[in-house]
């Protein structure tokens, strides 16, 4: 039976390298993005490697939950073996999408909603896998999820980490929920790579809290060191999570930057955090539209 994979934000950077790895492993790969030209180039690059199955591109703006719903409708009509939620974004200035803070939408609500809508398809195609891309930035996140945003000023790096923490808590909670269904759920931490996000937003001191701005030369050097590697290396954790035979039958595992299982951040495994994230997600991205 043909194995299929969907990679969100798969037209460049870590997402494209993940798609290339999955194609090399024999998957029929669909890459998702909002730019048709980049999508065409991504498909051309994957096709140039001589994959066993043709790649394709589907256009969707994953910052729009309405477009996420439309994308899910298109994907759900076909078998699905692996879903890689690679989408991610960081913003120097506070923004909103659909009335909700942008970082929370892109980094958590969008992959959460797409995953939930595709669960019947993934269960029908079991054994199957869900891979949610996380980040080391979860370690600097505020851990209260009574609302989309905590009180205080907006600092993009910390808000990005908080949205990624919400998604990591969801990932571990989902793994427990789906245990025994044949759908395994993993988180993959790419570490860092030189991508559009890291070479752009992460050079702006406004993304960190005032205390860290006082140390900006040190903070910026640390950011530069941690995001200097190639995207092909940063994609390895996602590829391993999606394909490695040693993970068969396992679930709720975090694959770290060295492409090996690591312990999850304690806060992400806290049932109270998972509970709060579940309620917040259902409020702002209800599974049933409207």
Question: Can you give a write-up of this model?
Answer:
This protein is α/β, with parallel strands linked by helices. It has a single domain (4-284), classed as Rossmann fold. Helices cover 44% and strands 14% of the residues. An eight-stranded mixed beta sheet has the order 3-2-1-4-7-8-9-10, sandwiched between helices. It has a two-stranded antiparallel sheet with strand order 5-6. Helix 1 runs parallel beside helix 10 and helix 3 packs parallel to helix 4. The chain is globular. The mean pLDDT is 91.
Overall number of domains? 1
Which strand order does the major sheet show? 3-2-1-4-7-8-9-10
Question: What would you call the structural class?
Answer: alpha/beta
> Radius of gyration, rounded?
18 Å
- Poorly predicted runs are none
Strand content: 5-15%
Largest sheet: 8 strands, mixed
CATH topology: Rossmann fold
Q: Indicate the percent of residues in helices.
A: 40-55%
The CATH superfamily turns out to be: NAD(P)-binding Rossmann-like Domain
CATH A-level architecture = 3-Layer(aba) Sandwich
How do you describe this structure in short?
With 290 residues, the protein is of the alpha/beta class.
Keywords for this entry:
single chain, 290 residues, alpha/beta, Rossmann fold, 8-stranded mixed beta sheet, two-stranded antiparallel ribbon, 11 helices, 10 strands, globular
Topology:
Blueprint: E1 4-8, H1 13-24, E2 28-33, H2 36-47, E3 56-59, H3 65-76, E4 82-85, E5 96-97, E6 100-101, H4 102-124, E7 128-133, H5 156-178, E8 183-188, H6 196-200, H7 210-213, H8 216-226, H9 231-234, H10 236-243, E9 253-255, E10 261-262, H11 271-284
Parallel strand pairs: 1-2, 1-4, 2-3, 4-7, 7-8, 8-9
Antiparallel strand pairs: 5-6, 9-10
